[in-house]
């Protein structure tokens, strides 16, 4: 039997007692003033492993932030259950769940110093002053802001403010750390720096961490696993590279990848796919003959004199060690992107041939991937 969470704040250190988070059939609906019902999270079930960093990923409005707020207790589900380890926390208030929450805008108190901001939650928890000072210093050093303790938030850069918010969340020694779009207010360089810092901090503390983002590169770069959502539904969960290389459907394939995957209409005949210009390619898929969509990631397209996909180069973009070609498939006029070595120099108007090292076959109606 699962047990109800205790009424006291869990006294569990962040360096031990790692906790699994289990969401069972969570549903959350919102009703507007006109009575219109929006299902933000729909019968959502997932188990988040103890001590791991999990990226909750999807487009705006997919339900990822709502899911985070359900875990935190800021939203109550219409139905379903939330467990932290063996504790049923579904009806436990946020302050009793043992969570640390970092908001998108950091929510620092502008009139307080960095030190006072970090100490604030410990004062609410009535932690003895001497212990609170030690814990605040420890967390500040963990996130590398030990020399900024006397500054006010307006004297800090965006990245430094982010670190203060993380230190304040961790100083409570939470069982679960929740980050809502933690890097969205930072410039590109700081985003890269800070995501590496989040990974380091999570590894050092071992705290189970769930962070919400719409940036697939961000999620894939530091997550142990990613959960892709759309329309309140879980689409796929797994190791980032596994999800990228083996998407379960067309939505996941299109959402992950930059530049995005090429989607080319065609027909499945036997184990062959036939493009609209009559080009035939082996697929290895055994399904009834039907209209399909073919997924070709830009890096799967290889220049070859024996290639069956003939195209005309429209634009050449140099992106460091690689070059991106934007081409139009001959006789179809459909635009596709290909990543090639920068050693190969091409110009607009040239004719090229591609062979594909791998392709995905999707049901044209449902988007389901055939294997």
Please, could you describe this protein's structure?
This protein is α+β, with helices and mostly antiparallel strands and 371 residues long. Helix content is 23%, strand content 35%. It is built from 8 helices and 22 strands. The strands form 4 sheets. Strands 7-8-9-4-10-11 form a 6-stranded mixed β-sheet, with helices on both faces. It has a 6-stranded antiparallel β-sheet with strand order 14-13-12-15-21-22. The chain is elongated, with a radius of gyration of 25 Å. Residues 1-13 have low confidence and may be disordered.
- Computed over alpha carbons, the radius of gyration is 25 Å
Cα end-to-end separation: 40 Å
Quote the average pLDDT.
Answer: 91
Question: Count the helices. How many?
Answer: 8
Task: Summarize the helix and strand pattern as letters.
Answer: EEEEHEEEHHHEHEHEEHHEEEEEEEEEEE
Give the DSSP E fraction (strand runs of 2 or more residues). Answer: 25-35%
Helix content, binned percent = 10-25%
Strand adjacency order, main sheet: 7-8-9-4-10-11
Shape: elongated
Poorly predicted segments: 1-13
Secondary structure elements and pairings:
Elements: E1 3-4, E2 21-31, E3 37-48, E4 53-57, H1 64-72, E5 79-84, E6 87-88, E7 99-102, H2 114-124, H3 129-142, H4 158-170, E8 176-180, H5 188-205, E9 208-213, H6 216-222, E10 225-230, E11 233-238, H7 240-245, H8 250-255, E12 262-269, E13 272-275, E14 280-282, E15 290-296, E16 301-303, E17 309-319, E18 322-329, E19 335-341, E20 351-356, E21 360-363, E22 369-370
Name a few traits of the molecule.
371 residues, 8 helices, 6-stranded antiparallel beta sheet, 35% strand, 22 strands, alpha+beta
């Amino acid at each position: 039997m699962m047990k109800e969470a205790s009424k006291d704040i869990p006294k569990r250190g962040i360096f031990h007692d790692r906790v699994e988070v289990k969401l069972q059939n969570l549903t959350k609906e919102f009703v507007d003033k006109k009575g219109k019902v929006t299902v933000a999270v729909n019968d959502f079930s997932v188990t988040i492993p103890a001590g791991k960093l999990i990226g909750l990923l999807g487009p705006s409005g997919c339900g990822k932030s709502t899911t985070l707020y359900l875990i935190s207790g800021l939203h109550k589900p219409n139905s379903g259950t939330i467990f932290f380890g063996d504790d049923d926390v579904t009806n436990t208030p946020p302050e009793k769940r043992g969570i640390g929450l970092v908001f998108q805008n950091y929510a620092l108190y502008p009139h307080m110093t960095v030190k006072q901001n970090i100490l604030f939650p410990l004062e609410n928890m009535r932690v003895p002053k001497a212990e609170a000072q030690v814990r605040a210093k420890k967390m500040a050093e963990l996130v590398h802001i030990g020399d900024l303790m006397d500054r006010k938030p307006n004297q800090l850069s965006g990245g430094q403010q982010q670190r203060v918010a993380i230190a304040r969340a961790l100083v409570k020694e939470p069982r679960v750390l929740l980050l809502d779009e933690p890097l969205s207010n930072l410039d590109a360089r700081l985003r890269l720096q800070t995501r590496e810092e989040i990974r380091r901090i999570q590894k050092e503390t071992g705290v189970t961490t769930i962070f919400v983002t719409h940036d697939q590169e961000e999620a894939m770069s530091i997550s142990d696993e990613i959960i892709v959502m759309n329309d309140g539904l879980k689409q796929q969960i797994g190791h980032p590279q596994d999800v990228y290389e083996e998407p379960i459907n067309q939505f996941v394939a299109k959402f992950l990848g930059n530049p995005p995957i090429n989607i080319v209409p065609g027909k499945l005949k036997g184990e062959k796919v036939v493009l609209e210009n009559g080009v035939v390619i082996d697929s290895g898929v055994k399904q009834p003959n039907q209209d399909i969509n073919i997924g070709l990631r830009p890096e799967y397209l290889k220049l070859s004199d024996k290639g069956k996909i003939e195209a005309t180069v429209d634009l050449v973009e140099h992106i460091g060690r690689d070059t991106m070609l934007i081409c139009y498939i001959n006789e179809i006029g459909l635009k596709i992107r290909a990543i090639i070595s920068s050693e190969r120099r091409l110009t607009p108007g040239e004719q090229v041939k591609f062979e594909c090292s791998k392709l995905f076959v999707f049901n044209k109606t449902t988007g389901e991937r055939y294997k």
